[in-house]
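Raw record, unedited: Tumor protein D52-like 2
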Amino acid sequence: MDPTSQDINLNSPNKGLGMKHAEDLSNVPAEGAVGNSPHPLPPGLTEEETEELHTELTKVEEEINTLRQVLSAKERHASELKRKLGLSPLNELKQNLTKSWQDVQTSNAYKKTQETLSQAGQKTSAALNTMSSAITKRLGDMRALPFSNSFSSNYSIRHSISMPAMRNSATFKSFEDKMGNLKI
């Protein structure tokens, strides 16, 4: 069967049949039809007007089919040209994403968001720096206390007993080193 004579209208009752077969079927009365006419007359139209409308509809459907065939041929040709140029769907996707990302970066919303995040980062950095300084100072104060002062009224016995062990632990030293070196 010649593909150009195929009815590719997806809504057509003759879908997949050659145009020659579709014409043969147009002469067969529809199931349940009354009289010799394949289509009952719509109210308010004469037989002649109905026939003209059917003829025009047939022409429009043929034009649609022709356009679909032309579009399909053009798409195949474009695909072949892209293949010859080495353009793949993945490359096209990459190019589209790159262009979209550039569009986003130049948008006002992105710039405002970037500025806001930059300000938030600066404030967070300042807060962490202040906190680091306070912790470092407190650790320095704790280191400076002699062991005999650990029994003063400010410290509990439990605290003073565990303090030397805690100071000598690897975790405490690692924490102290990191906090001492943390300068933002």
